[in-house]
Amino acid sequence: MSRFSFSLKDAASPPAAVEISAHRVSAALVENRGGRPVVAAHATESLPAEMVVPSLTGSNIRDLTGVTAALRRTLERIGRPRRVALVLPDAVAKVSLVRFEHVPARASDMDQLVRWQVRKAAPFPVDEAQVSYVAGGRDGEAHEFIVSVARRVIIEEYESVCAGAGAHAGVVDVSTFNVINAVLAGAGSSVTDWLLVNVASDWASIAILRGADLLFFRSRGADGDDTLADLVHQTAMYYEDRLAGAGFARVMLCGASNLDALEPSHMSELVGSLESRLGMAVEMVDPTRAAGLIDRITAGPALLDALAPLVGVLVRDREAA
What is the pTM of this model? Predict the structure, then answer.
């Protein structure tokens, strides 16, 4: 069972999920059929440039009316769900792995400790932040937590889009956490080390996991000096030198079709560069292993990339197959 969660408001998981990114809104409805989750409906609509500008500090929704209308049309195509999980770009949150030697027994004391720890790294006052944390792995006697910090007003911008489209965002999460969830739900139990690269047109994130335990997370904007392949190579070196890594069992890529849409052949170039740097094959994330499709036998890269975080947030509370 995955533990990744940025914000959980409703106790019960919603039946549908939406993602709002810089270039599209997407939605999916997952149902149980024959004891297995399946994607019963899905829809995507492209957004013009500058309608949504993912950012950690500045306003993200630049055209509230336009984005809301696009999401409303998308939700109509999957049956107008009233409760949804909301997936946001990684760029809206700062994710850190924080370790404590001692963990307070009271939840209120733990909240204060986490906020005190992240206040120096946050690029805005922590009292303006929405802070979420979940337990991670353990290193000796140290307790590790995955901490996500976002400006509350930015989260509310995205929530207002859902509300305007007629849906309540009961769960709020970021993209890469739920791509991870989709992989875990479809892969079965494993304790091997693996690397995930999740890319969008305007940001990219790299995660290293040992089974379901997050060991490393890094996200950067599209304006970085190093290429994505360089960053992955640096991450692999850090894994070997600082995390005593014995080697990746899998290297997985999600979102490369987003780049291909902007520049043909970019996906194949990225895959080739990653394989050359890491010396092993790169697998595309396939969310249909976690939730099958009922309307087609196969799906192209663009659909799989769009479905991965949506499926991940909807199946994250299920036991891995």
Answer: 0.92
